[in-house]
């Protein structure tokens, strides 16, 4: 076994230390790069969370309503239905969803658009409460007077209003 001089010993261990130090710095930089990529993806998703553009909404036949609390693209379908499931299926077929019952949503709709039907009107909406039964009917007698019932089927016909997801 060869005995190393102090100069040789320091040179070998300095090289090992330098190599380990570079290895650690490389992985620190790699962690920083990964964090920046994840942050960029997150920020990109936040930027896209503003929703559908007015042009895309109108291309689908919808009415774009950017309110202070609610920003929606409403789609008024010509079909009339007697069941919640039929209304739900029509909305899905048109790339939209059946709206949840919301007074803020209704106020937003009234502030930006005229409802294309005469009162009284009945529509199906989803129940926002955590219940098994998601079916609601909302009947508008006038702009300021409406009622809701937990119904999945009605004897008459209901209009179909959908919201295009943002």
Walk me through what this model shows:
This is C-type lectin domain-containing protein. The protein has 166 residues and is of the alpha+beta class. The protein has 2 domains: 1-49; 54-164, Mannose-Binding Protein A, subunit A (Mannose-Binding Protein A, Chain A, Roll). The protein is built from 4 helices and 6 strands. It has helices spanning 6-48, 54-59, 84-93, 103-112, and strands at residues 63-66, 71-83, 121-126, 135-140, 146-149, 153-164. It has a 3-stranded antiparallel sheet. A hairpin with an 8-residue loop joins strand 3 and strand 4 (135-140). The termini are far apart. The model is unreliable at 43-49 (pLDDT under 50).
Question: What key attributes describe this structure?
Answer:
single chain, 166 residues, alpha+beta, Mannose-Binding Protein A, Chain A, three-stranded antiparallel β-sheet, 42% helix, C-type lectin domain-containing protein
How do the SSEs run, as a string of H and E? HHEEHHEEEE
Distance between the termini: 74 Å
Rg, rounded, reads: 30 Å
Multimerization status: single chain
Identify the strand order in the major beta sheet: 1-2-6
The number of strands is 6
The dominant shape is rod-shaped
What's the CATH topology name of the largest domain?
Answer: Mannose-Binding Protein A, Chain A
Work out the count of structural domains. Answer: 2
